[in-house]
Amino acid sequence: MGSMKDKTAIIGVGCTKFGEQWEKDAEDLIVEAAYEAMDDAGITPDDIEATWVGNLYDFTGLSGSVAAEPLKLFGRPTTRVENFCASGMDAFRNACFAVASGAYDVVMACGVEKLMDVGGSGLPVDMGHPVLRGSSAPGMFALAATRSFHEHGWDREDLARVAVKNHKNGAQHSKAHFQREITLETALNAPMIAWPLGRFDACAMSDGAAAVIITRPEIAKKSKHKHDYALTKASVLTMDVFLPMYREAYDWLGFPATENAAKQAYAEAGIKNPVEEIDLAEVHDCFTITELLNIQDLGFCERGEAAKFVREGHADVGGKVAINASGGLKCFGHPIGATGCRMLCEITKQLQGRADGAQVENARLGMAHNLGGPGSVCAVTILGLPE
Amino acid sequence: MAKIASFGAYIPLFRLSRQEMSDAWGVPAVPGERSVANADEDSLTMAVAAGTDCLAGVDPATIDGLFFATTTSPYDEKQCAGVIAAALDMRSDINTADFTGSLRAASTALRAAADAVDSGSADSILVVAADCRLGEPESMWEQLLGDGAGAILISKEGSATLRGFKSTAGEQLGVWRRSEDRYVRSFESKVEMKYGYLKSAVEAGQALLDNESLAPGDLAKAVITAGDPGSQGKVARSLGLAGAQVEDMLFMSVGNVGVPQMLMMLAGALPQAKAGDKLLVVNNGDGADAFLVEIDEEFSPVAGRKGLAGHLLQKRNLPNYTSYARFRRLMKVDDIDPRGSAVTYWRDINVVLNFHAGRCSSCGAVLYPIPRVCGECGTKDKIDEIKLAKTGTVFTFTLDHLEDGKYVNVPVPRLVLDLEGGGRVFLSMTDGDPEAVKIGMSAEVVFRRMHDASSFHNYYWKCRPVPRASS
């Protein structure tokens, strides 16, 4: 198998404010994010040769027009990418392949979701079968929490610590959905959503869009960001079982999709010791339990140790690996199709030393991670600065 | 001669004290309590439960027919017997029929089954009966009725012989519901009693005794269905029977259950019967049927068959009338309308109704729902269809407050269940207390109505904590 290492580079990023954008529609959001990214790259819409857009719920049926229509990118290809919560990062991955192949010089990967127009009480869940159904999205991840409590002795306080950390980070970021810190008590006393997950264990339902401009390194070297473009060190996506609750062999203590994606990404990037080499990671904390499991599945600590890893501050900004310095899905928000690209924007700006929120000092290597479906798909991207 | 090979019963777990109903409306209370079907139960699901009880230790593939008797069919047009047979995992080349329209429907079905066996057209037929009738709110009917189901397996081989069928027919005085009525209607009860119930029951019962040249004292027991113990006593006295000969009609513990009453009372009487005993059965409803049950040998207990006694012992008390009103949807709330497809449902009958899984013949993994390609070893189309067990233990769970996107105050437990003998399923829990769910808890798989997507009753399996007999 070949490798994507150092074959593509991000030269521009754009991201809207995430949150309840009642007065804006998806057109407003994607135009704002895409134009911010093009401005950042110093290019115009005419320079975009092809586009990939991640989108899950909203606009289904609109296909490539999700991005091509609002941005008027006519006479060129736009492909809509749908892959659960990894839709945005998979848009990026496909865009990278196109650039690496030499077919295009400059392309855009973006993502948008307008969730709040259809109500804020959890994602619409439809397994497509009349009676063989999953539970709600929190219900699915709660199954992993219950089992982890049972096996590792974790409790709701271990989950709450993740929420407190991510709110602390997000409160410093002007584009995050929530702009306030929370206490352990607030998190623990919140109403239940799907036991053991309460309201503060769940990420925000948000509207938002994000975009990145991708090119090859030799073109990046002549771009506006010629000294601080972000090189793709790895770009990996793995699929796994769609209905894990029926799988007898599954232990519910982690997500094989993440374990496999991480292994492949580290091999591709040449990373031997992730906790030492990676400076920051935006990981998919759709629920607090998911962040704990991600920390283990990504190899930052052993199984059963994630609660301790967070409790001891290793996941803080300034810790061993800054996990979700942006506030994560929990505090920054999670407009499904936009999240993957939003993470790539965050990592790029952190590497460039111009983070909107809490800046990770001397960040050289960053990771972005999406998990979806709940464990059907995982995307891992590793970005680094040019030498 | 047609024989009784097995019997079974089902009583919903929930009971409501009639005092609670009286308190809710400020009307006089009838003594005792009544059974109340859960919100996800109906006559069809209760019939499956009674049928399961009756078939403990019996291979459903050996049975040649299923007759379903009820006055509260969930469908005006669509046969329920076929759905019940599929949920009981019976063969598809069998005779199925619904018997409806009269409280006498269970004896009509039983006689049809006995006739089929006697004629040689079938070796065995399972008769199931269930009702979930509604009394008008505030009326005494609400207190008097109860929900439940009964079952009986009629076969060439068995421990008791059926004989001597007698009937009374013709236009009768009695209860009714027009197709547009939700609640049971009746005339002046004294008139219905004298010229309806009493007249027809005594006529049929007496005709049988005369025809068989039996004196009341020759009978070990009389199974006489009735709306209340007083009416039942009048029939018994008219036939010359003593109180001790009359089988309990379950008035104090369950209520007037309608069509299944005869089968539930039989399920109560048969385990007590001795070889040589003769049991008179008189079933009433728009006329009456009478028949004789002659015990050839005692019915020995069967592992897994709870029967009537077992079901009477297991119960949870509903706290108030509001819970009853919610279960029966007496207050209108906005319906959730999830997506459905009758075609998808039909295509997956082996998974959805038969509750079959696959076993990979290459690696042995038990796979549910049944895939084309094994999820463990990747072998294509080498998957054998197997039956899943209906009991298991909780591997993990959540208490979910979101139901199809709607926040509900009482969470729905959703359980990942490891089934006995292999296979893992993901089922919503019903009947039990969400707070009591724990990893390792034993649960049994029960047939329930999930929702009505696409204006179609979507039945599937849920699970519940294995009920314990209350002391």
Describe the structure.
The complex is a heterodimer of chains A (387) and B (471). With 387 residues, chain A is of the alpha/beta class. Chain A folds into 2 domains: 9-120 and 206-220, Thiolase/Chalcone synthase (Peroxisomal Thiolase, Chain A, domain 1, 3-Layer(aba) Sandwich), CATH 3.40.47; 137-203 and 233-384, Peroxisomal Thiolase, Chain A, domain 1 (3-Layer(aba) Sandwich), CATH 3.40.47.10. Helices cover 34% and strands 18% of the residues of chain A. Chain A contains 13 helices and 12 strands. A 10-stranded mixed β-sheet of chain A has the order 3-2-4-7-1-8-12-11-9-10, sandwiched between helices. In chain A, strands 5-6 form a two-stranded antiparallel ribbon. In chain A, α1 crosses α2 (65-71), α3 (87-100) packs across α13 and α5 packs across α10. Chain A is globular. Chain B is an alpha+beta fold. Chain B folds into 3 domains: 3-327, Peroxisomal Thiolase, Chain A, domain 1; 334-355 and 390-471, OB fold (Dihydrolipoamide Acetyltransferase, E2P) (Beta Barrel), CATH 2.40.50; 357-388, no CATH class. Chain B has 12 helices and 20 strands. Chain B has a 9-stranded mixed β-sheet, sandwiched between helices. Chain B is globular, with a radius of gyration of 23 Å. The two termini of chain B are 41 Å apart. The mean pLDDT of chain B is 96.
